[in-house]
Write a structure and sequence with these properties.
- The protein has 277 residues and is an alpha+beta fold.
- The protein has helices at residues 2-50, 54-79, 83-103, 105-120, 160-165, 191-203, 241-258, 267-276; strands at residues 128-131, 134-141, 145-149, 155-159, 169-170, 176-185, 215-221, 226-235.
- Helix 6 packs across helix 7.
Length: 277
Amino acid sequence: MDPVFVKLDKWFDLSIGYIPNVVMAILLLVVFRYLAGYGGRIMAKGLSKATENEALVSLISALTRIVILTAGLFFALGILGLEKTVTSMVAGAGVIALALGFAFQDLTTNFISGAFIAIQRPIKVGDIIETNGFTGRVKSINLRSVVIDNLAGQQIEIPSKDIFQKPITNFTYSGERRVQVDCGISFTEDLALIEKISLQAIQSLGFLSTTRQVDFSYTKFGTSTIDFQIQFWIDQVKIGPGAAKSEAIKALKTAFDIHGISIPARPAEVAGDVKKE
């Protein structure tokens, strides 16, 4: 039994010698645990000022805590003299991260794209945008996807990578939007008078932008009309582009009726009416 007792005695002596290192390692872990919580809160507070995306703030805050705790664990293992264990853990973590990156490549791309969208903020909740063939109002911006309402009763979820990699038309960015109305009048009408009446009719609308002017221009000689277009800017807080165009058409028709100006039917329209009859 002597060799057994000698071995046990040696282990006991080694364990006694390890007690200070163990105590220091535990204290170090406690300190890093506190630092992880503090660092996570600081990161969340700073990111909240840069983005309103709560998912991104929570993710980065959690990653910050994990990184600090992992650093504390490595330091603690180093104090215990387990450097080889630390090396093995780092190598294993690298292999696992590489495997997960390949396995969830699309998911990872979406998360990274969602993070860049949240930081750069090309769009915000409530914006009316056009992207990837869809037009609608942004309902929510998540890390994995962006959800929009297509203004027709359907909800569309677009992956973040498609939003980040493809063009976006943001109709709400400036708060204003241009609307265009096309029309035509007879060759016998006074063109200067038509322009004056049209501008007065549009300028009387109460939802126009106060910083932009109304533009009127004749565009071409048609088969039976001289065509013109009116372009004006609207305040999107007051009205949408569809309703604004409708009001503009009604205002033009009323003004033309008052001055006895008729809008001739185009040959294609007349042919269509005859065909229907």
